[in-house]
Amino acid sequence: MAVIPGDGIGPEVVSEALKVVAAAGVTLETEHYELGAARYLRDGFVMSDDLMSELSGFDAVLLGAIGPPVDSTAVPAGVLERGLLLRLRFDLDLYVNLRPFDGAPGSIAEGASFKVVRENTEGPYAGEGGVLRRGRPGEIATQGSVNTRMGVERCVRFAFDLAEDSPRRRVTLVHKTNVLTFAGDLWRRVFEEVGLEHPGVETSYQHVDAACIHMVERAASYGVIVTDNLFGDILTDLAGALCGGIGLAASANLNPAMTGPSLFEPVHGAAHDIAGKGVANPLAAIRSAAMMLDFLEEGEAASHIERAVLDVQAGIAGRKDRWSTAEIGDAVVGRL
Ligand code: IPM
Ligand code: MN
Q1: Domain assignments of the chain as residue spans, ordered by start
Q2: Does 125 qualify as catalytic in the annotation?
Q3: Which CATH superfamily hosts domain 1-94+255-336?
Q4: What are phi and psi of 323, to 5 degrees?
Q5: Ion ligand 2: residues, Cβ under 5 Å
Q6: Is the pLDDT of residue 102 over 80?
Q7: Would you say the CATH fold of 102-248 matches that of 1-94+255-336?
Q8: Residues 185, 209, 273, 277: which is the catalytic one?
């Protein structure tokens, strides 16, 4: 597998994730790649066609975090996001961004356990649009949202299959069909059509604004949420905060067709403000690695790690003492 530790706290949390995988008895052949803000600032390199094809030969990619310090102006907005992260998602056709949430003890969403299936290759992220007369009077900027039947359907199908295999067997479509009537109509029809093929799965629909309220007040009632790229981005930050903090939020960028590697990364960013201090929470990265093992059909090791992560998460919740990054990793290893 390819490992991209990345920037800020990325390397610290990734090394804990690899430590835990080894402790779970899985031997991985890894190759490390230095990519991200630091690399870009050193030699201007973001990604190349050659490196993309090299990466596409791996079984999986594990990524820590990509991004410069928030106040840095040295890296223009979008250079790393579009040039690296979205490039990986798009070129490897990682069309599902799967993000599981389990409300930690003491969190607002304590006891909740749900999964968000975020479409990961289309929507406003597709980059449709442009700018005219930049910086001059009469300037125009447009930013479209791309929604294809193929793209929506494969994502919705994944969500139903996931719900079919989950104890709650419930899937909620989140969109904004009352305003985004073109895209919303497509999502809603596809959702209904695929739903007919899954009579055992309970379905519901929520507008994205209402879903924010629902998630704060009744997160425990969700099973699987399926939604478009941008709504999924926003909703999963909210879910992270509600479930005990973004430091616990794991994610898998999946190519379920397995025509190439999938990419596993914590939802959090590089957090330069706490980088190098050994205080970053590695649980999101560790759980992302567990999702990787699960996808690579190392399901037993994956579920052991996941259980250990949830145990440790419960054990440290609400405690006043500070645990270091390595201590949390060691605690997971101890549980294993
Ligand atoms: C995420 C991140 C990315 C996104 C950024 C870094 C491009 O916020 O994975 O949620 O918007 O998808
Ligand atoms: Mn995000």
Answers
A1: 1-94+255-336, 102-248
A2: yes
A3: Isopropylmalate Dehydrogenase (3.40.718.10)
A4: -105, 140
A5: 233
A6: yes
A7: yes
A8: 209
176 noted as active-site residue: yes
Mean pLDDT of 202-216: 98
**C-alpha span between 282 and 267 (Å, rounded):** 11
- How confident is the model over 19-66, as pLDDT tens digits? 999 999 999 999 999 999 999 999 999 999 999 999 999 999 999 999
7 noted as active-site residue: no
Q: Determine if the pTM surpasses 0.85.
A: yes
Query: What sign has the CA pseudo-torsion 291, 293, 296, 297?
Result: negative
**Of 59, 91, 237, 330, catalytic:** 237
Tell me the fold of 102-248.
Isopropylmalate Dehydrogenase (3.40.718)
**Mean of all residue pLDDT scores within the chain:** 97
Q: Is the CB of 202 under 6 A from ligand 1?
A: no
Token pair 């998602």: residue: 89
Q: Output the CA 144–ligand 1 centroid distance in Å.
A: 18
* pLDDT given at position 70: 83
What is the pLDDT, as a whole number, of residue 71? 83
d(CA 324, CA 330): 10
317 pLDDT more than 80: no
Q: Clarify whether 233 is annotated catalytic.
A: yes
Residue 285's identity, in one-letter code, is: A
Nearest Cα residue to atom 5 of ligand 1: 81
The one-letter amino acid at 65: A
